[in-house]
């Protein structure tokens, strides 16, 4: 057996765990394979998460970690975690939060789906901002784990999650919500492995089975095995894992805030006022409509002459999705090949426009494509707006 060491930023050993000789050798090899992307804080425990998530398959674990590094760069994760100011509607109405620790010292996080206004949130925030906020929450979870790790002699590396389904109804299987929730789950699974120790689904109504069946294929077998559906008689189950003093009164414990809040500051969402809804009256006039026949695609080509030009887009897809991408083609040559700038992704944005943009690193032709090639039976309508911002405009 070999010792597994967790080291904090000061180089102090936090915990030691024994690995089999085989797993120890795989860990050593994995560290060599990904040495070019590792940071000083990436200790053995950090590496082991990726190995575990891919069942110690070195190639798959390496791909997963390298994809995560790309993900962090693409989404500017450090900025989202430390500097980004999210829209007020997300801060006030995205149900959930952190309070207390389980009996092993793990942070306990709560998610209240029954009090989450799915319709309101999708009318009040863009898909991009919802996903950004999801990343911020995931980073907050990692921070809470690190803080606990530094307080205890034993190594803490994951959380306990309580999902409250009280008052959940048909809104949870509303397709637009399921689409964004599925993206959130995929993002979590791909980039925050081994974060979940156990999940307790409480107050689960009959519709939970239907909802779970619609999203479970986005979860790994390992994650599925950590989900415990408790129902309404959950108090004794939670107290077996969480001390009463660490469990809010609202959930059967004895904890409350100094001002007597039985929910201990956990956000329970609620109905979002329509004043937060994003209305597009000011932008409706600038949108153009295109109709994409079944099995076809439409390309919009823009000649960019100056390096540093910003190409922005907004579009609505109605009730159906389309495949969106941006490609680059060098001008002045006979070469017809293009290179991907924004890889193809199917997007449904029927309430709030999908918005994005790129900085053009070199002159040439940039091609925005809306594709319906995958649909054999249905044509699609897209309302879009494209904006080109020249370098001199950004300097003003």
Overview of this structure, please?
The protein is of the alpha+beta class and 396 residues long. It has 3 domains: 2-75, Helicase, Ruva Protein, domain 3; 81-276, 3-Layer(aba) Sandwich (Phosphatidylinositol Transfer Protein Sec14p); 284-394, Jelly Rolls. It has 12 helices and 15 strands. It has helices at 21-33, 44-53, 58-75, 77-82, 88-93, 118-124, 127-151, 175-191, 207-215, 221-224, 235-241, 391-394, and strands at residues 2-7, 13-19, 97-101, 107-112, 159-164, 196-202, 227-231, 288-292, 297-304, 310-316, 322-329, 339-347, 354-359, 364-371, 380-389. The strands form 4 sheets. It has a 5-stranded mixed sheet with strand order 3-4-5-6-7, covered by helices on one side. Strands 8-15-10-13 form a 4-stranded antiparallel sheet. A hairpin with a 5-residue loop joins strand 3 (97-101) and strand 4 (107-112). Helix 1 packs across helix 2. The model is unreliable at 6-16 (pLDDT under 50).
Please summarize what this structure is:
The protein has helices at about 20-35, 45-55, 60-75, 75-80, 90-95, 120-125, 125-150, 175-190, 205-215, 220-225, 235-240, 390-395; strands at about 1-5, 15-20, 95-100, 105-110, 160-165, 195-200, 225-230, 290, 295-305, 310-315, 320-330, 340-345, 355-360, 365-370, 380-390. With about 400 residues, it is α+β, with helices and mostly antiparallel strands.
């Amino acid at each position: 057996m070999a010792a597994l060491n967790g080291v904090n930023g000061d180089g102090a050993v936090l915990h030691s765990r024994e690995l089999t000789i085989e797993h120890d050798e795989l860990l050593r090899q994995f560290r060599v394979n990904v040495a070019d992307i590792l940071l000083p804080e990436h200790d053995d425990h950090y590496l082991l998460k990726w190995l575990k998530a891919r069942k110690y398959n070195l190639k798959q674990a390496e791909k997963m970690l390298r994809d995560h590094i790309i993900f962090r760069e693409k989404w500017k994760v450090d900025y989202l975690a430390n500097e980004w100011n999210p829209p007020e509607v997300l801060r006030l109405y995205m149900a959930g939060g952190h309070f207390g620790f389980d009996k092993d010292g793990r942070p306990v996080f709560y998610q209240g789906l029954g009090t989450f206004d799915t319709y309101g949130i999708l009318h009040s925030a863009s898909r991009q901002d919802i996903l950004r906020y999801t990343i911020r929450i995931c980073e907050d979870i990692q921070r809470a784990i690190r803080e606990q790790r530094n307080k205890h002699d034993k190594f803490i590396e994951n959380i306990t999650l309580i999902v409250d389904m009280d008052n959940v109804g048909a809104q949870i299987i509303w397709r637009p919500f399921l689409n964004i929730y599925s993206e959130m789950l995929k993002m979590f699974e791909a980039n925050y492995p081994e974060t979940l120790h156990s999940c307790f689904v409480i107050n689960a109504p009959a519709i939970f089975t239907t909802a779970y069946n619609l999203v479970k294929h986005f979860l790994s077998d390992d994650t599925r095995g950590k989900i415990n559906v408790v129902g309404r008689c959950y108090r004794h189950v939670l107290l077996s894992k969480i001390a009463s003093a660490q469990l809010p009164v609202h959930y059967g414990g004895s904890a409350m805030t100094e001002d007597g809040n039985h929910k201990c500051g956990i956000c329970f969402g609620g109905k979002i006022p329509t004043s937060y809804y994003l209305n597009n009256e000011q932008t409706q006039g600038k949108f153009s409509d295109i109709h994409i026949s079944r099995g076809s695609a439409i390309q919009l080509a823009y000649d960019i002459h100056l390096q540093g030009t910003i190409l922005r887009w907004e579009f609505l897809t109605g009730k159906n999705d389309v495949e969106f991408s941006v490609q680059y083609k060098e001008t002045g040559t006979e070469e017809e090949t293009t290179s991907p700038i924004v890889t193809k992704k199917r997007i449904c944005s029927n309430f709030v426009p999908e918005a994005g943009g790129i900085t053009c690193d070199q002159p040439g032709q940039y091609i925005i494509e809306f594709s319906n090639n995958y649909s054999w039976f249905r044509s699609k309508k897209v309302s879009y707006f494209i904006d080109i911002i020249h370098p001199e405009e950004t300097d003003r």
